[in-house]
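Entry 14. Ran structure prediction on the chain below.
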Amino acid sequence: MVDRAIATLAGRRVAVLTGAGISTDSGIPDYRGQGAPVRTPMTAQQFLADEAARRRYWVGSHLGWNAFSAASPNAGHEALATLESRRIATGVITQNVDGLHLRAGSSRVVELHGTMRRVFCTHCGQVFDRRDIAARVEADNPWISVPANIRLAPDGDVLPESTDGFLVPACTVCGGMLKPDVVFFGEFIPLEKFREAEALVRSSDALLIAGSSLVVNSGIRLVERARRRRIPVVIVNRGETRADARATVKVDAGTSEVLRTLAEALPS
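Output, structure tokens:
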């Protein structure tokens, strides 16, 4: 199947869509892969309406931040950066919030679901670097400690044992509520972000999907855009996806090895 994928993509300008599966080799688990625990993610409504929910979120997010931010790009991320530098890949649309594509060297990256690198105030709009917020959390909560064996989630979250006494960070400009610059469950992807992703697919001759089961509607909508344009769709993912029946080629395998092979084999 990898040979078929190479033949399908050869000579084409390729838009890439990635999901959590591309980051598993960097130590960040995916949501729905084999062995992934059942999760009930916090919704935007819960975060915005419930002070206790916000406290629980910030404790768990802080506990996972060090491990999440220390993750390094893997061979899959690096292969996509290579494909872009050789002008085979037109860019990467990612459902991930880990920033690993940018760190690997990809320059055109559409972060559909936002990024954990930034935090913003929901009242005045001030933007903060997440590293600065982490330093404030530690200064305000010196008792907090990171457990030795944390169960990290794909968004960097950890289920905390307790939130008692935790001081939630607030905006230093207006005192307003801070929120990570990510799309929570229950929120819509910003329209301008989706349009940017659509434009990337529209300007390409093929769509390569890596490490996504396409359960999130944004991904399946991009597959539909590709199908309407009658351009080939190649899927690389362990296990089934929602678009297997629409794929020109489906490679049921890990992303790191397959993407590295594509980067080596596809002609510039």
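The two ends are 21 Å apart (CA to CA). Will compare against last week's run tomorrow.
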